[in-house]
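Dear colleague,

Thank you for sharing your sequence with our group. We've completed the structure prediction you requested, and as agreed, I am returning the results in plain text so they can be pasted directly into your records. Please verify that the sequence below matches your submission; if there's any discrepancy, let me know and we will rerun it promptly.
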Amino acid sequence: MSDAQEFSAKIRSLARLACPVAALLPGLAQACALPPSVLLTLPTDTYITAAALTVALTAVLGALSGRLPDFTARKLAEFRPGALTTVTSYLSFLAFLGLVLVGLLGNRDPMHNLMTLVFWTGVWIALPLASMLLGNLWALVTPWTGPVRIARALLRREGGIGLARFGHWPAVLGLAGFAWFQSVSLYPDDPAVLAKAALAYWAMIFVLAVLDGEDFLQRGEFLTVLFTMISRVSPVWVERQGDMARLCAGFPGAQVLRMAPLSPSAVVFVTLALAALTFDGLMETFWWLALIGENPLEPAGRSAVMMANTLGLLAVWVATMALILGVIRAGRLAAGPVALSFLAIAAGYHAAHYLVMLLTAGQYTLAALNDPLFSGESWLGLPPFYVSFGFLTDPRIMPLIYAFQFTAILAAHLLAVVLALRLAGGGAARLRAHLPLTGLMVLYTILGLWLLSTARAG
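Please find the predicted structure tokens below.
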């Protein structure tokens, strides 16, 4: 074998081991957590065991002692937002149309097309992560609020068509379709396919919101519902009261305790959000591929497993909903209030699950924004840089990334436990009622960390 052939063989072997290809493509990288070549050398079993025990002890001690964090909210400032959200939303809508045109007419390479990069990396990952820290940023950049307000004003339309009676079920259908598109469909990262799907969805929601009113977005548009729920763990937020708005701050999760109990359709939405994240992490694991009869070392491609993954996504959703509602009922707790505690788990796992994709595909996004026409210019004034994935196999950096993910998962579950105690009532007399819920929280901790650390196909 020549030196060139030997070098090529080593590169192919390293690629299979470290799964960098999956990290490069947004559509394929949705479930890529960490390269097994580095992660499997860590004592992940010890991490998982310690996290599970920490969650369990926190729940028991919290229920017995009744000493829980102070979730009091403090007002920092008060201001009149005026037409701010209308302006920012309309500008976001114009940017959305520009991205759709780029998706339809631009380069079909997802790593060189802003439609794919901005949506999967910016909207789906960076925006929720920022909202967990800074509050509901989606309210400023949603592409519907401004156009809907303008359209209803021009049409002099008031009132609605009664869609409120459907609660959050339209959002449930939207999230279910999106979860299938993201995890199961053949071309979720194809710019043209993504652009057509996004434009069709935007038009449908726009028509319904114009007919029924802006409030429909808070119940029926899945991105608005999901991002609003995730942002509830933020330590800062804005509360609207008529024409005025208040900037508030408090312990993470303080907003959750100020929410009304979830309706049955909203509870189903939360279970679907958790199930979609779980299956997105599960579907490329060796365990799942072996279960459906696929060789994890020679993946057959998405088309070969569409039916199996569709059924798997549905099964995980049904199991998640049954487990959550089952333990709540076993403890004789009210589903509406207690289900709110699972918002913390959804937020934490979203952050941990998509961190590596943000660090990988995010580099392509920054490069594309800096030179959107790929003409060698620098629109953002950034110096030339090369996209690098060397950190994916660096034994010094990857443990730090896993440590961040571990912390996000553990902190989210601890917050969920504390919120559940506050929402359902603590005290020794209620410990027995909390035990089934605590058991599920522990299992979720183990599952979340296992999904981030187990071997997966690349």
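Summary note from our side: The longest strand covers residues 74-79.

Kind regards,
the structure core
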